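Rotation project, supervised by the postdoc (A.L.). Task for the rotation student: set up a whole-complex structure prediction and record inputs and outputs verbatim in this book. Inputs entered:
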Amino acid sequence: MKKSTKVNAAILIIGNEILSGRTQDTNTSTLATWLNSIGVIVKEVRVIPDIEKTIVDTLNVLRKENNYVFTTGGIGPTHDDITAQSVAKAFGLKYETHKEAFKILEAYYNPGEFNEGRQKMVKMPKNAELVLNPTSGAPGFSVENVFCLPGVPSILKSMLGSLKNKIVGGEPILSHTISLKTVESEIANSLTKVQDQNVEVEIGSYPFFHAGKLGVSIVLRSENQSKIDNCISQVLKFVKEKKIEIVDR
Amino acid sequence: MKKSTKVNAAILIIGNEILSGRTQDTNTSTLATWLNSIGVIVKEVRVIPDIEKTIVDTLNVLRKENNYVFTTGGIGPTHDDITAQSVAKAFGLKYETHKEAFKILEAYYNPGEFNEGRQKMVKMPKNAELVLNPTSGAPGFSVENVFCLPGVPSILKSMLGSLKNKIVGGEPILSHTISLKTVESEIANSLTKVQDQNVEVEIGSYPFFHAGKLGVSIVLRSENQSKIDNCISQVLKFVKEKKIEIVDR
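Outputs recorded:
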């Protein structure tokens, strides 16, 4: 399959528990790292509450602006799980029992355990495609370019394998990090010059304070390794001139 | 000062490093927890890249839809720190050296250390109000209802004290959690009934798997303690009927 050069995505985190601060979202970092590795650039993340109108409206913006949208959360059995019905509404589709998903969960649970609560988890937008769940049975699903995944981080992670063949990425985004024992203000001007001379490489500068060390990580990102290499040489040149210690490269 | 009942906010996380998955954002959780404690409801979080047009456009949407907007990231000395100039553009203000901020950093650094890179950190939208930084000197700032904070979590945390008297919250949002040794599908129907009878309490259901325990936390949120208490009774009633073990309440 021919790869397009730029493929982008939005991540939509659905859940009051993130907005209240009760739960620390980690799915963004998991999904973003994985998407970058398969050549999908995350352009935007939004966190929104469990409110149907908000989910519908936000989805209808994001799915038109991006090649893919990945939602997390709201596909469990309780009253606050309203992602599937909201996706159905956003696409103008019926919200109904998905036969294949029903069969999967019927086989997954012991006889008598596939109760009314659990049966809610197989209600989806009509003709949704399933994203299989090797951890806890209940599948995610996709409609067109919108992929709906669970909020529980360990379950989400276990589903990336099932997702992989459904996503067509562009060129993988390559990244190289150089960590220096310095402060940002010391290298700001030199780094600006490198960025100005290498507009196709995204250069980020991030101070770090950990394990008793204080320093700056310079992150170089591009689809093109030789352009990254060119930046690395230019960075190492000013680092040498300024006699800055390299912590890691 | 009279408190309005509902005060809401958006959080705008600015930084390529979050979108690439390189950095795990923790500022959302810090800010959201703090804002809830002072009666400010976080309605939305967005994570966007270090692109001026995106920052300007997003800010101009969020600042009109919310009582407050809190940005994190992009106020350091390097080329990828473009929050201050973007905020100036969003408000149609000049981007210039802030005299008070200049004095603060001039006094903060040793003679000769307040170099060109660091002087970038005192360039702000004209007449911005400062948010003092007890950790590393360089202040954040606000323009109207937009508050710009740093991305480094420890520095951001240390600035909440300076922020506090600038924010007028509504009634604090109270929260009570009941953790049960059960699975969501077991309590889904009963919990739906409690939610239907208590529409002014936000009821969330969150499965947990930690320290070898599997269970569900029910989170009850409202500005009104007696409404929460009413929900607690109703939850404990069905918990008793179903002989579910209470892990914590």
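Student's summary: Residues 60 and 90 of chain A are 6 Å apart (CA to CA).
Supervisor addendum: Chain A touches chain B through 65 residues (CB under 8 Å).
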